[in-house]
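From the thread on structure requests for the teaching lab: each student submitted one protein with a one-line request. Submission from student K.M.:

"Model Ribonuclease 3 from Chryseobacterium nematophagum, tokens only."
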Amino acid sequence: MELQKYFSKFLLKNRKKKLTERDYFLSTELKKILGSEIRNISLYREAFSLKNSSKNQESNYERLEFLGDSVLGTIISCHLFQTYPQANEGYLTQMKSKIVNRKNLNKLGEDLKLTSLLQKSNSMALGENISGNLFEALIGAAYLDFQYEICKKIILERLLTPIEMNKLENKIVSYKGLLLEWSQKKKVNIKYETCEEVQVNKAIVFRCHVWLGDEKIANAMETSKKKAEEKAAQRAFYILNKKENILGNSKTL
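Reply posted by the TA:
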């Protein structure tokens, strides 16, 4: 037993010598997140490297993000298929969307403080989706490093547990999507009318009006067309839900 401890300490010291200080920090933090000693540090360097404008562009997180997106989608789809044997395709699709949507992935990446693992400081501002992008890149790196079964275990036991997924079951991800589903069932027409407005300080904003047939039922203003439509849809949802119980009618297996 003492001999085993000696060799463990010896190997750890040896490993520290081979890794740079930055790599050692990355390796140590990732072990806390993944619950396993990483094998190929270069994969994680790439996963936490930003894109830059240099012609001699080194690898960055985008390719691993692409891979991680597919791996995560497959693992979540299989998990939901096995967990809800009686659920129809529509319910499974909705649940998957709630789990892998950009907002939820951003939150997961933020909770793990993944931006603290970025390899180089960058003068350009980080995009609003960077935490979610890095979360997917991390999954892509873990898949290549550990292969599918261990990667699956890491996701379902540490990164995105079934308990966390269950919390999302009744969460509304998109009010616009919910209204669309309701309007198709009721055979009524929901329309969005969005236009640009220039404010006094010359800032450009977007105002969206939601129409139910010939009636204007809600409006909202935001900094982007997508945000304005979602905010207006949310307001329309609360108005209609009092009359139609949209949420209750949409929850079907």
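TA comment: Residues 175-244 form a domain with the Double Stranded RNA Binding Domain fold (CATH 3.30.160.20). Residues 3-14, 249-253 have pLDDT under 50 and may be disordered.
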